[in-house]
Design goal:
Helices cover 82% and strands 0% of the residues. The protein contains nine helices and no strands. The protein is globular and about 55 Å long.
Amino acid sequence: MSLSQAFFAIIRRDLLLALRRRSEIANPLLFFVLVITLFPLGLGARPQLIQAIAPGVIWVSALLAAMLSLDSLFRSDFDDGSLEQILLSPYPASILILAKVCAHWLVTGLPLLLIAPLLAVFLGLPNTVLGVLMQTLLLGTPVLSLVGAIGVALTVGLRRGGMILSLLVLPLYVPVLIFASNAVTMASSGLVVSAQINILSAMLVLAFGVNALANCGGV
């Protein structure tokens, strides 16, 4: 089996496992939808205020939804010994771990990306902003998965590593939250957002590099 075949085999395996455990797909998506839909109910009939905070609400919800699913990234493989087999395989561990991260994004990040425009319209964001919102989610959610994978790798052997995982990755998520929500806010005001998009692109490239470096020696 070539390296590319092994890469896609890992992705296919993780997607099949996720389909058998549908709660792994439903829980983050349901959390994302519930948090966003509850905000207008809590704020009342204030459409201008809801529209003003909509970018932050969407991105905070996406960040928390991504964190909700992080622990399952390596946990089942660690428990059944599959993770050891991945690290002992003749293929580079960084590539195989990247395949698992890609599968995690397909299960958690992609559904958020697809449902976000509908929720953005629900919060009153103009249609002209939806393209920028989708662009920030397309660049930002993979960063959440890549950075989260490093935190999960450091805490997967702990019996109750959920709190430590949150403390590790949450500060690293803050720059993504700031630049992504700011890009959507500025776009809604008709301002240029190329700087924020470029920074998010740089974060994605940096996250790929750091993730590969962190996994070169194994999880």
